[in-house]
Write a structure and sequence with these properties.
about 0% strand, mainly alpha
């Protein structure tokens, strides 16, 4: 973003909430309220992600706490947001923020109930229209939820010339860790809402030829360079 344009833009939206620990979420909502649109640049961004579980958990906790703060601010004056953003855009923002919070919080409970109904219930052979409706809804959430979680990772790996990793099978453990971060964020939000948990980023060593090729744009010269870095999973 051009510096002069960025300064004018921030003046236009009056900056962002300094008390929000996830400033990009707050700023994104403010931009939407002023009618700005966000588009994707055809590029790639690489970063050194946390390499310890404690650092990763602190980072995810901070992100989720920031989303909770942003959602709370949104719900404080929903009519004003609908008036500025329009019903469709405001509803889309509400759905995104709610799902990002509710999914990690209640996902494990849903998974346990799903497994219980498959083994001991009539989920796979529902009796009656009402049971058929809820069974179809539950199975659809499980199927498409798994697809949305796995497919982007597989597609991204193939685009970078990398084969699908067996580490994808650890997805359920990742989701459990995200649930832990969500409940921790909720606990922090009620007791330490403005505490900013700093994240330590410890880069792994990168080959010298990769460093030389990436000095200007931080863009690895080949797919093998990607595997030498720690990539962040959103």
């Amino acid at each position: 973003m051009i510096p002069h344009f960025r300064t004018a833009l921030l003046r236009r939206v009056v900056g962002w909430d300094a008390w929000n620990v996830t400033e990009d979420a707050d700023l994104g909502l403010r931009l939407a309220r002023f009618g700005y649109q966000v588009e994707t640049i055809d590029s790639a961004t690489y970063e050194d992600a946390p390499v310890t579980f404690s650092d990763w958990l602190g980072q995810r906790t901070r992100w989720l706490k920031g989303w909770m703060q942003t959602l709370a601010v949104f719900l404080r004056a929903p009519r004003r947001h609908i008036g500025k953003m329009g019903l469709f855009r405001a509803s889309a923002a509400l759905c995104v923020m709610t799902s990002l919070i509710a999914g990690p919080l209640f996902g494990p409970f849903y998974a346990l109930r799903l497994i219980h109904d498959v083994i001991f219930g009539d989920l796979l052979a529902p009796q009656g229209l009402e049971r058929l409706f809820f069974a179809s809804l539950s199975l659809s959430v499980a199927f498409f939820g798994s697809l949305v979680f796995i497919a982007p990772n597989v597609i991204g790996m193939r685009r970078r010339g990398m084969g699908a990793s067996l580490f994808l099978l650890l997805g359920p453990f990742y989701l459990l860790a995200m649930s832990l971060a969500a409940w921790r964020a909720l606990w922090e939000w009620t007791r330490q809402p403005f505490v900013w948990t700093k994240t330590n980023h410890s880069p792994r060593p990168v080959a010298k030829e990769t460093q030389a090729a990436s000095v200007l744009r931080n863009f690895p010269a080949k797919a093998s360079a990607i595997s030498a870095r720690v990539l962040s999973t959103p």
